[in-house]
Design brief:
388 residues, Udp-n-acetylmuramoylalanyl-d-glutamate--2,6- Diaminopimelate Ligase, Chain: A, domain 1, 3 domains, six-stranded mixed beta sheet, five-stranded mixed beta sheet, DUF34/NIF3, GTP cyclohydrolase 1 type 2 homolog, metal-binding, DUF34/NIF3_sf
Length: 388
C-alpha cells in the first residue's frame, strides 16, 4: 500500500521542483499526503474532461503537466471555473499534482519523451541547463584540533555540498613553512625565526554565491593570523538537463517523409502537423522541444540540425528563420510545427513509467487519451496556391 507522499517523493525525485522557472507553479495543488493512493491518472491538462476521467476511473491522484493555478489567485470559490474543478477534486478525494517547467528541463523530461516517440537517439539537451557556478577552496591547517574546527566552519558556511552529500572534503598531509616578520602575532613560532609545521591540506567545493561567507568563516575559524588558501573557479560541467533535445534518426529520410513520421508518432489533432522546408531535403539530425519552442529557434539553427520539431511556431519568427538561409553553421533547419498538447502528451507515458517502476504493483497508473488541445476543428482551402 502506498500513500500520496510515496508517489510525490517518486515524482519530485524525477522532476525536482527546484528546477522549475521562477514564474512557474508546480507541486501538490490539493490532496492529503497521508492518504492512500492505489490509482494515478496522468494527463497534459487539468480540465473538466481529465478531472471527470480521474473521478470516473477511481484514481486518487491526477498528475498533469500544465498547472491549474499558474497565476496567483486570492480565492478558489466553487463559482469560478478553476475553483469548481478544485472543489470537485477535493470532494471526490482526488489529489492534483503538477510537474511543468521542472519536467521540461529534467533528465529525462518532456523533450526526451517526444524524441523517443519520433525514434531519435538523444545526444543531449538543445539548451543545457547551466550547472551552478562552483569554486574550490584549498587551505592549510596545522595538524591537531584546528582541522575539525576549520572543516566544520567551512561546512556550516556552505562548502562541501556535493549532490545529496554534505561535509565533503579531501585532505592530504604536508609541511608548511613561514617566517614571521616584525609586527606579526604568530599562533605558532616566533618573530624572526623560520618555522616548519606539519599541516593538512584541506580541499572543499562551494557554490560561487557562498564565496564571501566561506572566506569569512575560514578567517574566523583558522588558528593562523594569516591563513593561506587558494580559491579556484571551477570550469562549468556539461549538463544533461535543459530545454529541448538533439538526437539522430537511425537513417536519413526526405523532409516530407519525416513530417509524416512526426504525424504518425503523435496523437491526432485538428492542428495537425505542418512542415516548413524543402520536401526533398534529407533529414537525419533533429532538435525537438516539447511545448512552445520558438524561443529556441536560433539555438536550433546553431546546433547544426536538419530539422527542428516543436509547437506554437509563430509566422514572423518562422519567416525570419527561413530568410536566414545558409549561415556559417550550414543551412537553417527545416521546421515542423505540431500542436502544443500533442508535443507534450508523450511525457505522460514517461511519468507513468517512473511511478510504475518505483512503486510496482502497489499503484496502478494510466494515461489519459482525452484530447485537451483547445483546437477542435479545421478546414483546408480548396486552392492552397491562392493568395489573400
Amino acid at each position: 500500500m502506498s500513500t500520496l507522499r510515496d508517489v510525490l517523493d517518486v515524482l519530485e525525485s524525477a522532476y525536482p521542483p527546484d528546477l522549475a522557472m521562477d514564474w512557474d507553479a508546480v507541486g501538490l495543488v490539493c490532496g492529503d499526503p497521508a492518504e492512500t493512493v492505489e490509482k494515478v491518472l496522468f494527463a497534459v491538462d487539468p480540465t473538466p474532461e481529465t478531472v471527470d476521467e480521474a473521478i470516473g476511473t477511481g484514481a486518487q491522484l491526477l498528475v498533469t503537466h500544465h498547472p491549474l493555478l499558474l497565476r496567483g489567485v486570492h480565492g478558489v470559490g466553487a463559482d469560478t471555473p478553476k475553483g469548481a474543478l478544485l472543489h470537485r477534486l477535493i470532494r471526490s478525494g482526488v489529489a492534483l499534482f503538477t510537474a511543468h517547467t521542472n519536467a521540461d528541463v529534467a533528465d529525462p523530461g518532456v523533450s526526451d519523451a517526444l524524441a523517443a516517440a519520433l525514434g531519435l537517439a538523444v545526444d543531449g539537451p538543445l539548451e543545457p541547463d547551466p550547472a551552478p557556478a562552483l569554486d574550490k577552496i584549498v587551505t592549510f591547517v596545522p595538524v591537531g584540533p584546528a582541522i575539525a574546527q576549520v572543516h566544520t566552519a567551512l561546512s556550516d558556511a556552505g562548502a562541501g555540498n556535493v549532490g545529496n552529500y554534505s561535509h565533503c572534503s579531501f585532505a592530504t598531509a604536508g609541511t608548511g613553512q613561514f617566517l614571521p616578520l616584525d609586527g606579526a602575532v604568530p599562533a605558532i613560532g616566533e618573530v624572526g625565526k623560520l618555522e616548519r609545521v606539519a599541516e593538512t591540506r584541506l580541499e572543499m567545493v562551494l557554490p560561487r554565491s557562498r564565496r564571501r561567507a566561506v572566506l569569512a568563516a575560514l578567517r574566523a575559524a583558522h588558528p593562523y593570523e594569516e591563513p593561506a588558501f587558494d580559491l579556484l573557479e571551477m570550469a562549468p560541467v556539461p549538463s544533461a538537463r535543459g530545454l529541448g533535445r538533439v538526437g539522430t534518426l537511425p537513417r536519413s529520410e526526405p523532409f516530407a517523409e519525416f513530417t509524416r513520421r512526426v504525424a504518425r508518432a503523435l496523437p491526432a489533432t485538428a492542428w495537425g502537423v505542418r512542415g516548413a522546408g524543402d520536401p526533398e531535403r534529407e533529414i537525419r539530425r533533429v532538435a525537438v522541444c516539447g511545448g512552445a519552442g520558438d524561443s529556441a529557434l536560433d539555438t536550433a539553427a546553431r546546433a547544426g540540425v536538419d530539422a527542428y520539431v516543436t509547437a506554437d511556431l509563430r509566422h514572423h519568427p518562422a519567416v525570419e528563420h527561413a530568410l536566414a538561409g545558409t549561415g556559417p553553421d550550414g543551412p537553417a533547419p527545416a521546421l515542423v510545427d505540431v500542436a502544443h498538447w500533442a508535443s507534450e502528451w508523450p511525457w505522460c507515458g514517461q511519468a507513468a513509467d517512473v511511478v510504475r517502476s518505483a512503486l510496482g504493483g502497489s499503484v496502478a497508473v494510466s494515461v489519459s487519451r482525452r484530447r485537451t488541445d483547445p483546437w477542435t476543428t479545421a478546414a483546408t482551402s480548396s486552392d492552397p496556391e491562392a493568395s489573400s
